[in-house]
């Protein structure tokens, strides 16, 4: 009978053929789950792009059309961002497990047939199955999604809003006219523009903070010995 495990040097162990087959099926299952959640990430991004497109169509439908839809769509975009950040935390669980198996099991086997890269990787993966947990915080996940997609969406929204104020209903002649057009009801235009600037700077700063966090954690290139 084939032994379940064989002791090897330095406290490591080998896998039997049955265990290697089980790990292969486990990896395939994790790839499938990460693919499903990746599709869900793309779905929320598509929703944000579509709603922004609708707001652009309404705002630029005529010279007299109000730029207000470009302001209100920001609320929906932020809602989609929060939803996508939550989905990203789930996706990252499956993605991290796939990468863990690839870097500690498949890569050494492909390189020289030696399953001995890193200490304690099997225990680390087993503990992640015993006690499932998120590998990144909600704050980090929001920052990563802003960096990947939403910063560009927010910048397009901002550029469209400024462009609408500049060209419609007629080209602006001075800065005072530009500020007056930004007014929304009783809210002065200068206040609206200041809130818009804070809106953009805040999300850009969040993206930068997330990038610095990942740089501190992983360095210039992501290491194969960490999950998340």
UniProtKB/TrEMBL annotation:
InterPro entries in alphabetical order: UCP01500
Residues spanning the membrane: 44-62, 68-85, 149-167, 187-208
Keyword entries, A-Z: Membrane, Transmembrane, Transmembrane helix
Protein name: Putative membrane protein
Organism from which the protein derives: Limimaricola soesokkakensis
């Amino acid at each position: 009978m084939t032994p379940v495990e064989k002791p090897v040097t330095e406290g490591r162990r080998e896998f039997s053929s049955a265990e290697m087959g089980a790990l292969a099926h486990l990896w395939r299952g994790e790839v499938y789950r990460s693919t499903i959640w990746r599709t869900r990430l793309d779905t929320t991004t598509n929703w944000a792009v579509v709603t922004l497109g609708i707001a652009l169509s309404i705002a630029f439908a005529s010279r007299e059309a109000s730029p207000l839809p470009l302001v209100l769509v920001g609320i929906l975009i932020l809602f989609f961002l929060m939803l996508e950040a939550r989905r990203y935390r789930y996706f990252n669980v499956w993605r991290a497990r796939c990468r863990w198996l690839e870097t500690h099991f498949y890569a050494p086997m492909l390189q020289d047939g030696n399953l001995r890269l890193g200490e304690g990787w099997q225990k680390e993966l087993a503990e992640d199955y015993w006690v499932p947990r998120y590998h990144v915080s909600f704050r980090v996940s929001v920052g990563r999604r802003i960096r990947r997609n939403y910063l560009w969406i927010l910048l397009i929204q901002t550029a469209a809003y400024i462009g609408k104020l500049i060209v419609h209903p007629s080209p602006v002649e001075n800065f005072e006219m530009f500020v007056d057009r930004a007014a929304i009801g009783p809210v002065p235009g200068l206040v609206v523009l200041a809130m818009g600037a804070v809106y953009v700077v805040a999300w850009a700063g969040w993206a930068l903070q997330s990038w610095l966090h990942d740089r501190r954690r992983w360095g210039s290139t992501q290491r194969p010995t960490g999950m998340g």
